[in-house]
Amino acid sequence: MFAPVLLLLVPGLGQPKLTFADVERSKHTAYRMLGDFRDRLTVSVQDGDDPAESMEIEQRIAKANLRVVVRIGGKVVLEGGYDGASNWLVAHLDKAYQTTKGPHQWFREPYQAAAYASSEPQFDMSFKNGYGVRFDCNPPLVVQSDQSVKLDGADARLIVAKTSVPGSTRSMEVRQWFFPDRFILRRFEVNGVRKDGKKLKIVGAFTEANFKANLTPKDFALPPVPGYTQRG
Questions:
Q1: Is there a domain that residue 74 lies in?
Q2: CA gap 103, 97 in Å, rounded
Q3: Residue 170's CATH number
Q4: Under the phi-then-psi rule, with left for phi > 0, alpha for psi from -120 to 50, and beta for the rest, what region is 14?
Q5: Positive or negative, the Cα torsion across 101, 34, 61, 178?
Q6: Is residue 213 part of a domain?
Q7: Which of 37, 98, 151, 212 is the most exposed place for a label (fewest CB within 10 A)?
Q8: What is the pLDDT of residues 55-84, one digit of tens each?
Q9: Angle made by CA atoms 110, 176, 89, in degrees to the nearest 5
Q10: Is 101:86 a contact under the CB 8 Å cutoff?
Q11: Residue 1 lies in a domain
Q12: What number of helices (H) and strands (E) belong to the chain?
């Protein structure tokens, strides 16, 4: 007789456990629902004893319309997007660009977890689909905790996932801080130990997240590319 009362009083009791694929699938959907959004993200990578490297990634999203800009050292090196009619990509270091007319495939594609061909341990962090950062891992990451926390004085949802390679010291942990009411990232941290014992640390700090960015068609247009070579 007490079971229904317990289900009401204890959050999550009786509900399926959140999987890491659930988290990534929810992100996939949430970013594609954004209609007037812009954010900026600074990513810092410390791989073993190598000097830390950093870059800035800016996203502008209005459903299928998209623009992603990558800056290193304050200089734009790569940008791409969809303007409502064409996909385009500009590689500024190579002074080259390409355009392809048609629907925006990144927006239309369903979520699919990475399919690894072998059992070799692997971790992937990518921005390849243009809608937020994506994490995949082999062995799969397993959610350890899902809790409400404070981040920079504001409410946030923190989801921590981990995995390890049996019979070794290799491991990976991914921490993701989201807005409390949606699967849009505010911060992430990756901490791993490689086969050689070297540590990997990646920190993604969002310096801007604007859900009412007042975007216009110009925000998604191919930028001027005088003297650039057209490819494709």
A1: yes
A2: 19
A3: 2.50.20
A4: left
A5: negative
A6: yes
A7: 212
A8: 999 999 999 999 999 999 999 999 999 999
A9: 50
A10: yes
A11: no
A12: 3, 14
